[in-house]
Specification:
Elements: E1 4-10, H1 14-25, E2 32-38, H2 45-55, E3 60-64, H3 70-80, E4 85-88, E5 94-95, H4 99-110, E6 115-124, E7 140-141, H5 143-148, E8 156-161, H6 162-165, H7 182-189, E9 193-204, H8 215-221, H9 223-234, H10 240-257, H11 263-266, H12 270-295
Parallel strand pairs: 1-2, 1-4, 2-3, 6-9
Antiparallel strand pairs: 4-8, 5-9, 6-8, 7-9
Helix pairs in contact: 8-12, 9-10, 10-12
Length: 296
């Protein structure tokens, strides 16, 4: 069995998926599987993937499902993956040359059951690091501490042990398509740190149809998913009052968006939610105005 699965959730991205494919073909270590989770595409994604499978340049597995959103595609990927390690490369991104070899060599040298995986760097297509590098001489940390204790910024590439990513599946809410992926990562942070590798594994391009550039619309369309995410972050055994106050503000706005009369009953932090209500209301108003402006 191969050691690594590179999985790619995709939805109507046939026009840019080829760049990801060619980056995997260029890898000098073939100890990986490319798992494509087609989240309900109606374009020619399936035909394109079948063409690549016939070329037999890399090991490709393809799975189509009804559209569930990014988190639903991740759920399916984690159910299907059988390799020891996995990493997500989005459909509009591509893997850095030599990335598979770097992952497997690093894991062979330092990997163990006391860590959840490896955190590494993303870069733009112009080879500029996204955000900041990890602090020098810091070899391992939780993802939460990287951002909230050590001041790391920007998206990072996460390589996880598959047996752990099968834990904490993302909930699926009817008529919604978004739950923050970091939910699973923070759940794993409660027990494990990650190894840190200050090397680029992925090149990122933020396309206009990407979820990261449509966040206000995501807030509006997926209030149950955002409410769940903020509640879980308020429950974390780490984070401090300021962090949890911010989560409470977002929790309030999401519950106002979905007109939830049990807003103060369902929160895990009642006093904090009461204090956060004024700013949460202002955020709710801002989201409504912002999305109306974008539509017009």
């Amino acid at each position: 069995m191969k050691t690594l699965t590179v999985f790619t959730p995709t939805y109507n991205r046939a026009y840019c998926l080829e760049k990801c494919y060619h980056s995997l073909v260029r890898q000098d270590n073939e100890d990986f599987i490319w798992l494509i989770i087609d989240d309900g595409s109606t374009d020619n994604t399936k035909e394109l993937v079948n063409q690549w499978k016939q070329e037999k340049k890399i090991d490709i597995k393809y799975h189509w499902q009804e559209n569930q959103g990014m988190h639903g595609a991740h759920n399916t990927a984690y159910k299907l993956i059988e390799t020891e390690l996995n990493v997500c490369i989005d459909s509009d991104d591509y893997m850095a040359d030599g990335a598979v070899e770097r992952i497997l060599s690093y894991w062979k040298k330092y990997g163990n059951e006391n860590v959840s995986g490896i955190a590494a760097l993303d870069a733009t297509i112009e080879h500029q690091i996204i955000g900041s590098k990890f602090p020098e001489k810091l070899n391992r940390a939780t993802l939460f501490d990287l951002y909230n204790k050590y001041g790391v910024t920007g998206d990072k590439k996460l390589v996880y042990r598959t047996e752990l990513t099968k834990l904490y599946p993302y909930p699926i809410f009817q008529d919604e398509k978004y739950v923050g992926l970091a939910y699973k990562y923070y759940m794993l942070d409660k027990q494990y740190e990650m190894l840190l590798m200050n090397e680029v594994l992925c090149h990122v391009e933020y396309l206009p149809d990407g979820s990261s550039l449509n966040m206000y619309n995501q807030y509006l369309k997926n209030p149950k998913g955002f409410s769940f995410y903020r509640k879980e972050l308020m429950k974390l055994p780490f984070g401090g009052k300021v962090f949890k106050y911010k989560q409470a503000i977002h929790y309030v706005s999401s519950n106002l968006l979905m007109k939830n009369p049990k807003l103060f009953i369902e929160t895990p932090k009642k006093a904090l939610t009461v204090l956060a209500f004024p700013l949460g209301f202002l955020l709710y108003v801002f989201i409504i105005k912002k999305t109306r402006t974008e539509v017009n």
